[in-house]
Structure formats: structure tokens, C-alpha cells
Amino acid sequence: MHEHELWFTALLNKSLAAPANALFNAVGYHTEDPSKPWSNYISMEILVILGLMIVAAVVRASLSVDRPGKLQLIFENIYGFLADQAREIIGHGYKKHMAFFSMLFIFILLSNLLGIVPTFESPTMYYFMVAGISVCSFLYYHGQGLKEQGLLGHLKHLAGPMWWLAWFMFPLELISHSIRPVSLTIRLFANMLAGEQVTVGFLAMVPWVIPVVFMALHAFVSLVQAFIFTMLSMVYVGEAVAHEGH
Fold it and tell me: Could you tell me if residue 228 is inside a domain?
């Protein structure tokens, strides 16, 4: 399916096509049209990252304990809310994972909400982008499990609590863990794609008033999906780092 080129994507293709082609060629990927190597989902991801970098610089420059600004309070409340959830799910040692969880939630939320802005799209409505985030979550919780438990301890989690059922549980756990990135991808991608299509459809049919309702619904779904993705990642980390008896 040929995608409509957004203006920001066109700007990147016009000014940064050569660096993109060089990068893609270096990893063995060849675009269909070398004059347009940038896709919408990549340009939207870049836009979100640039936005986060600018916001982080602004917040860092105005950090204050006595008189925190509005942006600082927003991010502190987000961090505090996620920290409460992580404490309940993971327990002791949750703080060292908060940087990952906070960034995961904020990045997904802003990516989801970008679709509300006219002339932009949510990069999370593309399955390959969401698959990348899902793989990051998958690698993170397995990495933390190996770090916390060691190789044998981590494998014991996959073998189940009863050694005499290990022959049965181990293959099932391998299948279950392999499916997790797929389920995370489908859940987020399908919801964001459906929300985007509904909003665009009503904007085309009734350009006034009614689309506002669907845009509000899109914002709500964006928040819920970012929350669910982050909570599931917390659950996976909690399972990976849990010690027997806890």
C-alpha cells in the first residue's frame, strides 16, 4: 500500500535523503525509491524524539525544588504514578527500572497522541515500529532476569516451580515468552490504527464538531494503551527478577 507522504517526511527526503540511503545501505537494506528513503513512521518517530529532547532541555534548565514549573510537575506526577505501580508489581529493587518504564510510557504516549495533530500521524499505527518497542521490552526483561538471577536461575523460572514437570513447562514457557512481543505489538498497533482510521474517516465526512468527540476518544485510547503496554512490561520484569519465596 502506497502511503501518503507527510510534509515532515517530504522535508527529510528533500534534505537528508543521502545520509538515510548511506545508513540503510550499511545495514543491507535497500529502499524502493532512493529519492524517498524516509517513511512516515520513521519521520514521526524522529519528531517525537526531537520533541522529547527539547522538552527535557527546557525542564532541566528550569528544575527547582522550591518553585517547580508546570512541566516539571507533570513529569514528576507521571514518574510518581508509575513508581507506585512498579512498587506494587515488582517490589524491592523497582527503582532501578524506573528510567526504562518512564521513558517507555512517555515515548509511547506521545507517539500515540501525535496522530491528533493535523498533518501528522501516530507512528504506533505501523506494526513494525510497535514491534521494535515490543522487542526492546522483551530484551530488557530477559536481560534483567539474567542479571538478577544468573543463567541457571533465569532458566529455572522457565522450568516452573515443580522439577518433575519441567519437561512439560519449559517448552510451554518458551512459547509463551516468544508470543509476548507479538501480543504487545498487535494490541498497541491494532488499537492505534483503528482509532486513527475512525478519526480520519469522521473528519472527512463531518469536518466540524463531531470529530472532536473522536479526537477526545483517540486521546483517551492513547493514554490507556501506553499505560497497558508499560504495565505489562512491569509484570514481565517483575516475573523475571523475582526470587523464590517472594
Answer: yes
Which residue do the cell numbers 510537575 mark?
73
Q: What is the tally of structural domains in the chain?
A: 2
Structural domain of 167: 95-241
Does residue 69 lie in a domain region?
no
236 in the same domain as 117: yes
Distance CA 6, CA 77 (A): 34
C-alpha cell at 207: 469536518
**Amino acid (one-letter) located at 80:** G
Nearest-5° Cα angle at 24, 23 to 26:
65
* 73 located within any domain: no
Q: Are 211 and 131 in the same domain?
A: yes
**pLDDT tens, residue by residue, 154-167:** 888 777 767 667 77
Continuous segment of H or E residues that includes residue 202: helix 166-205
**Domain-located, residue 170:** yes
Mean pLDDT score of the chain: 88
Kindly list the distances between the CA atom of residue 158 and the CA atoms of 48, 72, 179, in Å, as whole numbers in the listed order: 36, 41, 14
pTM value is: 0.90
C-alpha cell at 45: 518517530
Alpha helices in 65-165 (DSSP H): 70-89, 98-113, 127-159
Quick check: 74 and 11 in contact, CB under 8 A?
A: no
Closest listed residue to residue 58, CA positions, set 66, 108, 112, 50: 50
